[in-house]
Amino acid sequence: MKKITSKKLSKRLVQYGALSAAALGVADASGQVVYTDVDPDQVLNVGDEFIVDFTAMGTEFTISNPDGLAGGNAAIVFPSSGGAFVGFASGGFQYPSLLAAGDVIDAGAGYTSVGARGDLNYYGCAYSNSQWCNTVVDGYLGVTFQFNGNTHYGWVRMDTDVNGSNLITVKDFAFDATPDTAIAAGDGQLGVDDQVFEGFEYFVDNANRLNLSAPVAMEKIVMHNVLGQQVISQKLSNTNES
User: Fold this and answer.
1) Could you tell me which residues come within 8 angstroms of residue 71 by beta carbon, excluding any fewer than 6 positions away?
2) What is the pTM of this model?
3) What does the pLDDT read at residue 218?
4) In Å, what is the CA distance from 201 to each residue of 5, 13, 228, 240?
């Protein structure tokens, strides 16, 4: 997969507004991955929660570190309407699976009940079905949700240290904007090879023009909306473009 955005650019475009999620996309032949870097990482102490909104339009999943369960030894997730987690049901509880980078999230992945709370680490390690038990680093939560009547798949990367420091850390998340398109855990994620974007800058002027600046000549800009539809495609040739 060809990455077309950097961590610095991701952070700035998140602040840009309605086009932010679309501009964070990384394109490949199968779809349009919309990636969001949580920068700085969101650390949840006991009693905190964090809302992941994949589309910036209400497709929300809440990650909670509640203080009312076993003295904080719990990690709970809540989907928005039409949402569910890669996982399974057992004994009346819904358990999201602990995914690793590269695991495929698609229609055949197996999911918890739609709209039902997921118990990542309920009462610490008291239940063997809690796959997020004890210390997890760079675990992936697989999700599915409905957006504009279509099914989408995505992931959230985070750490949990339940029964230890009782912290949860949310790092980043992504989804495929093309309906019914599989995504692998970690797809869209930025790597150390993205240094080509070092020195890239942008700003919006008083005339509402998006101005781009780069240390080397730019060749093209393509932007998509949150539905994955292309809204801008323009050839470039200079280090400064509008």
Assistant:
1) none
2) 0.71
3) 79
4) 12, 11, 24, 10
